[in-house]
Amino acid sequence: MGGMTTELARDLVSICNLSERDVSQLQILITDFFAAACAGYRQNRVFNDAVETVVYAQGGAAESTVLFQKTKYPARLAAFMNAVYGHGAELDDGNKKAAGHAGVHLIPAVFALGEKLGSTGNDVLLALAAGYEAYIRISSAAQPGLVQHGFHSTGMAGTLACAAACARLYHLDANGLENAIALATTMSGGLLSYGDSRPAIKPLNPGKAAENGIFAAMLAREGMLGPTESLEGPNGWFHAVTDHVDESCLRGSDHLLLHDCYFKLYPSCRHTHCGIDAGILLHDQVQAEEIRTVNVFIYPNAIKLAGIPYPRDPDETKFSIPYTLACALLNGSYGVEDMQPGRLTDSIRSMIDRIQLIPDETMEDRSRGIRGARIEILTSGGRRLKQTVLVPKGDPENPLSAEDIVAKLRVCAQGLADEVQLAGLQRAIGEISSDRPFCNPMEWLRG
Description:
Layout: H1 4-13, H2 20-43, H3 45-56, H4 75-86, H5 103-117, H6 121-142, H7 145-148, H8 153-169, H9 174-185, H10 204-221, H11 237-241, H12 247-250, H13 273-282, E1 291-298, H14 300-306, H15 314-317, H16 321-331, H17 346-353, E2 355-359, E3 364-365, E4 370-371, E5 373-379, E6 384-389, H18 402-412, H19 419-430
Helix pairs in contact: 1-9, 2-4, 2-18, 3-4, 4-5, 4-10, 5-6, 5-8, 5-10, 6-8, 8-9, 8-10, 9-10, 13-16, 16-17
């Protein structure tokens, strides 16, 4: 029997048939990516402008479509840019055990290479299924050490997952796929330093994961050999990123793990979402002027990564439990419009002043899929209001419907796409399941 990397590669190659349920879930995940990318393209403009100036000047072969651009670019650059857009508003899918995001790098990478190669729709869906499986298995096996060591799993494990997915598009066997992963281990990157300051750079991590994953698969196709035991070796990827490997996570489940992903309703880090849900539920129960103290009992890692009290720009709103909760308490909602700095009004500041973040490890239980928050409001009149949300809306245990995701797309695409384009986009996503040549749905959102 081979080692961890070999066994994983064999499992990923064995994914050859998708059920109707699998295909439906992939189509929902793809629709959700387009919603997130529309929002990220518009909201992260300062960062996007700088990246576009550098990337689009490089030009190159017209291989793959980039969102909102008339010109096509080399597959690697197209994947990079579409992943950057996809992560700009913090609205993309994720997985709790993996502690990161999957579709934001996998969908751009697979779509870009699939367009370049003229792959079939079935090839694209199988590649995505294998990529989700690779990402969730690898990253979950490395947690919580991966995060504790300061690594962003979306970039780190994402590079390996994109390499595996793109190797499937090249129809490589298990040895070839293992080499793609092995080559990707030496090209993976992504730190959580964005949480300390200047979080606008965060989309670079999935961008590089998509780009380098394609590159690793291209090298593997040419016969380039990566290190053996690239995950589990004495100087392998796991050794670098964690002190403990949960081998049970590498063996997967009785179903494809793409069904275990969550979807996001709010344009902010997932660590803020339980607080937002709780704040919305509490909104009608108390007047702002009555609130004396708001105690937020939440798991320590949430405070570490999303504890900015007074965001100075739209990027910092995405990593501010106090700000997002204050908006939810005062307005009974939280949306893209709340990302604007002008929304940090005196009333919002006053509410943030009353919010205290209190570390509570009981609010997180990986084995039960819990990453929650307990909000306790003390009023000037002596009332004590409590609201606990252990699982935010959009998690598999508290799911959104396909109609919810389509509605999310319509909201995020306002001003960027008309009804004809959105109808064409949805139709193109639905047609990916056929054996006909893959037609990149991004064509419907070109410049």
